[in-house]
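Before relying on records like the one below, remember that each one covers exactly one chain. Contacts with other chains, cofactors or solvent are not represented anywhere in the record.
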Amino acid sequence: MTSADLKAALLEAIQTEKDAMDYYHLAAEKSVDERVRKTFELLSRDERQHAFSFYAACGEGELPAFDTMMAAPPDTESSWFQALKKAMLAEFDERLALELAIEQEDALEKQLRAMAAKISDAKIRAIYLANANSTHQHMEMVEEDYRAMLGMSS
């Protein structure tokens, strides 16, 4: 993987984590269930941290300030935003938002692991794998809330 390819991959990872952050932030605003809202708020903060880890890996350069990037409006074409729109077809549906979050987290974990396998730089590969592990934990948290919502014990 060339340095240009690696930089492009890092920029894509930053955007993907921002997309997830936006999803959880907006879902938290719409959630009535306190447990679900708190989980979504926590995950929004975690996704911001994930984005920062990729941002830091890019090093100094032509990137805008991190806070500026995170304050940009959501990418309405992202899979995360499309999932949120699906959860809000009529009235916000927390159960569906949780289901969609599980799907998105699962897909993101696989994407991060696949990208890590392509990266020879050990430091950057470690960032991808750490974020993949955290993403797996996110999926488990959302699954736990989903089971609780359905009245299933964990």
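The first helix runs from residue 3 to 30.
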